[in-house]
Amino acid sequence: MNSNTHPPGAACLRAQALHALAVADWAGKIAAVRAIGDASVVDAECRLEPSSALPGRPARPELVSPQQLRHRSPASPEGRAALLHALAHIEFNAVNLALDIIWRFTGMPAAFYLDWLRVAREEAYHFELLNQRLASLGHAYGDFPAHNGLWDMAERTRGDLLARLALVPRTLEARGLDASPMIRDKLNSVGDAESAAVLDIILADEIGHVAIGNRWFKHLCARQDRDPVACYAELAQLHGAPRLRGPFNLEARRAAGFDWRFTGMPAAFYLDWLRVA
Question: How many structural domains is the chain composed of?
């Protein structure tokens, strides 16, 4: 089945996700996500073929290596805008990642695809909240350069759903659970309570998103008769997962379904986990 046989609004949820992923401008992409209905038919077996390069993205922001990004203090309006832009870029990529996992991977229960549709919708909402905060500072998405780290990991795991779940929601997105409180506090410290409140909304939703990744990772491990802890360690090494450094938001990680056996952490992580247990 080719994606061209499913125009926008067609019944197939996965085809609609592919269409939304291919949309380049951010406003059109958000609208396409919202147009996917809960009652859409989930055909978990159909093979879809993209008709354009993925993901669709606007001409801006310019994508550069992380080392080329300037560090700006959020004490200035320009520095605060740069920080909010970086967060908006993460959310834009998160929309694309949720759409990609829906269309790309076959053979999962309908609940899997509906879970990731929920994630796509919530990530789109987060993007809009951050773009509104950018507008309040006289900026918009695309005004600052950004890097492509999240999508690079998606490319590395494009042929393996288990690896995708291990390395994106359970690693890179889980890191956001750790970073959010620090960013919120930084925004509060410079008097931007409105942006700090947006971070609280995002953190609450992201706990659910990481929990979805955890749940389906464990589901696939059980289906393949693999131990989740050993499997994660193997996939992290195979795909070059970044070594994570603290501080860790243990409360959020617990709520998202992690336990003390989670591997790839420094020794301090396990000592902290035992201390608060």
Answer: 1
**Inside any domain, residue 160:** yes
Domain with 190 in it: 73-276
Tell me the pLDDT tens digit for each residue of 39-86.
889 999 999 999 888 999 999 999 998 888 888 889 999 999 999 999
In angstroms, rounded to a whole number, what is the distance separating the alpha carbons of residues 251 and 27? Answer: 34
Is residue 251, in this structure, part of any structural domain at all? yes
Residue 218 lies in a domain: yes
- Contacts of residues 228-234 at CB distance under 8 Å and 24 or more positions apart, as own/partner, are 229/261, 229/262, 229/263, 231/162, 231/166, 232/166, 232/170, 232/262, 232/263, 232/264, 233/263, 233/264
Q: What is the CATH number of the domain that holds 97?
A: 1.20.1260.10
Distance CA(18)–CA(50), nearest Å, equals 7
Place of tokens 């759903």: 161
Asked whether residue 43 is assigned to any structural domain, the reply reads no
26-34 and 77-104 helices cross at what angle (nearest 10)? 50
The residue type found at 252 is A
* pLDDT per residue as tens digits for the range 238-252: 998 888 777 889 899
pTM for the model stands at 0.90
Q: Is the peptide bond before 50 cis (omega within 30 degrees of 0)?
A: no
Q: Are 213 and 165 in contact (CB under 8 A)?
A: yes
